Amino acid sequence: MPDEARLEQVGNGLAPVTDGWFVVNARDAAWVKHDRFGYRCKFDMDGRVASARPGLEPTMFGEIGYTLAVLEPGKPTGMYHAEEAQEDFFVVSGECLAIVEEREVVLRRYDFLHCPRGTRHVFVGGDAGCVLLMVGSRSDHGGIVYPRSDVALAHGAGVETETSSPRDAYAPFGHWQTGGEKPEL
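RESULT FIELD:
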């Protein structure tokens, strides 16, 4: 029978520092912020969250990753990309523009977007912003590609030259920050 995970303060919220089951409210969980890409609530402890406390090792969920993203108006979630694993997205509040396979699709509260493996996509916050639940596989799925897209580039969410390197795709933008403020939920 699984044990209860131990939650500890890291950066500006609680994160699991041991494996096991746990309950945490999103307002209390660990968050990271990026001036360009908004806020992310990390329910597991990935490398960005673990970096807030030297000596902590990441304790990521083995099979499925969950992230709560708060998109600011007009700002993207990241760079237009396609992964070799399924990803799903649910709009909790607000609205956003999804760029999916070169098409612009407006998503509103309670809309669900399913992206089978290989689906190119990114999101841009609507006029009042958006809270988006992002769910994806954590399996060894063979990679990611950031294709060049004029549609994504027009929204500041695309790369000029196709790459399979996240480091190259995000090189111009600096790092996510732990600590500091959290978004209002």
